[in-house]
Amino acid sequence: MRSSSTNRESGLIVQIPAFFHYNGDSVDFPGISMDVSQRVEARLRAANVKPTRQRIEIGAVLLAGPCHLSADQISARLRESGSSVSKATVYNTLKLFSRSGIIRAVALDPSRLVYDSTIEPHHHFFNADTGELTDIDPAEFDIGSLPELPAGTRAESIELIVRLRNK
């Protein structure tokens, strides 16, 4: 299980990479290798997404390491780093990344969506009191059996959110 950092914005505690600076050619992450922008660009190209400056900046926030971030958190990180990417561009890019399989959207409730950089199927603990979202390794979670599936369907994946409250 990966643990979350203690950064808290918009009611969520998240795993998040260090702040970055984008100069048009590369992304500078203190303490993180300089190939982040190349990895982001390669991941975008592999998904047939044109790697624009804004998409690389947004991708650098999400793809530098495992994280669960809301659109508002991503916008805040970009602003804090001096980026001029608009909130509308962030939302549109997140939808594009999600549709393209670059990230996954996780609905915590009907009004709260976070974006997960880990695209392989996995489960989460969500602490409703603290807002903490933590990955659970699928190997650590055993589901004995499924109910009978509707005719003409097959199970593609099982991804659970275990909702928690503090004692």
Structural description of this entry:
- By secondary structure, this protein is of the alpha+beta class.
- The protein folds into 2 domains: 7-116, Orthogonal Bundle (Arc Repressor Mutant, subunit A); 123-164, no CATH class.
- Helix content is 27%, strand content 22%.
- The chain contains 4 helices and 10 strands.
- A 3-stranded antiparallel β-sheet has the order 5-7-6. Strands 9-8-10 form a 3-stranded mixed β-sheet, with no helix packed on it.
- A hairpin with a 5-residue loop joins strand 8 and strand 9.
- The longest helix has 13 residues, at 87-99.
- The model is unreliable at 1-33 (pLDDT under 50).
Note the main attributes of this structure:
alpha+beta; 4 helices; 3-stranded antiparallel beta sheet; 3-stranded mixed beta sheet; 2 domains; globular; Arc Repressor Mutant, subunit A; 167 residues; 10 strands
Secondary-structure blueprint:
Layout: E1 7-9, E2 12-14, E3 21-22, E4 27-28, H1 36-46, H2 53-63, E5 68-69, H3 71-80, H4 87-99, E6 104-109, E7 112-116, E8 123-127, E9 133-136, E10 161-164
Parallel strand pairs: 8-10
Antiparallel strand pairs: 1-2, 3-4, 5-7, 6-7, 8-9
Order of helices and strands: EEEEHHEHHEEEEE
Under CATH, the homologous superfamily of the largest domain reads Winged helix-like DNA-binding domain superfamily/Winged helix DNA-binding domain
Structural category: alpha+beta
Helix content: 25-40%
